[in-house]
Amino acid sequence: MPTLKANPEGNVSKVDTSDAPEWKSEHPNTPTNQLVPAMPMNLTAPGVNLGAYINTVHQIPILTTEQEQELAHRYVDDGDLEAARLLVMSHLRFVIHIARSYSGYGLPQADLIQEGNLGLMKAVKRFDPTKGVRLVSFAVHWIKAEIHEFVIRNWRIVKVATTKAHRKLFFNLRSLKKTNNQLTLEEADAIAEDLGVTRKQVLEMESRLTSYDASFETQTTDDDDGRYAPQLFLEDGVDPAELVEDADWEENNTSALMTAMDSLDDRSRDIVEQRWLSEQKSTLHELAAVYDISAERVRQIEKNAMEKIKEAMSIDSVIIP
């Protein structure tokens, strides 16, 4: 039966293993935790102390082919979780090695290692020891896949790689550029041909990679850039609840004013309207001539009318009609 085999470069190819004998355990009665040298039990997460984590991981022994096969079969055939734990522990140093190659994206090394560890655990769960491939060759895809997803999600606030072509460019464009200068059309065409994408996609990804995220808050520098911080466009905004409250209050005030005006006699209401509500406001003497009374009498009528209006528009009157 054909199976798979990894070469030194990590590539996997099919080989004929039709004559390969059926696997049989050489240590059927040995407890799983005694199959390999003792593993450290106090291994902390990378984010707690990255240096201590790396030192501890590099003290974990590398499994031989026979040990790996034994543990893998115990996990796949018998569901032995201790065997899966030992497989993961023995390959943590490989995750650190891969995670270091992504340090140029400015993300915490501890987070990259954590994501790679997730990929390693997924690889152990799917590993088939009957295929004739070492776990390290099989796991590299899963480890890189998890780290790729993490880098794309967190490298920028705005996603820069949303399609398969974008992802390919995201992880290869900088290494393919010969200089730090802007790409020429000839260079873009060459990269597009190498990666199987279009020139437009190459130039678009370069633009995304060379742009920067604008700060939402005002900058602390002395230049004028801080004036254009997005938060400044929201400083004059009003809470919707306040808008509703103000509109309701204005409506109640208007209603109370109309009610108060209706309670006045015709002369008092006309005097108030001419003195306060008309565009061309009348003087006391003009109104005195209209009603054939003294200016002092007009003032008294106005005063009495305004007191009635103020009483009608008091808080209690507005809120509780």
Q: What would your notes on this structure say?
A:
With 321 residues, the protein is mostly helical. The protein has three domains: 2-154, Four Helix Bundle (Hemerythrin (Met), subunit A) (Up-down Bundle); 164-214; 240-319, Winged helix-like DNA-binding domain superfamily/Winged helix DNA-binding domain (Arc Repressor Mutant, subunit A, Orthogonal Bundle). It is 56% helix and 3% strand. The chain contains 14 helices and two strands; from the N terminus they run E-E-H-H-H-H-H-H-H-H-H-H-H-H-H-H. The chain has helices at residues 50-57, 65-78, 81-90, 92-100, 109-126, 135-154, 164-176, 185-195, 199-210, 240-262, 266-277, 284-291, 295-312, 315-319; strands at residues 2-6, 12-16. The chain has a two-stranded antiparallel ribbon with strand order 1-2. Strand 1 and strand 2 form a beta hairpin. The longest helix has 23 residues, at 240-262. It is elongated and about 125 Å long. The chain starts with a strand and ends with a helix.
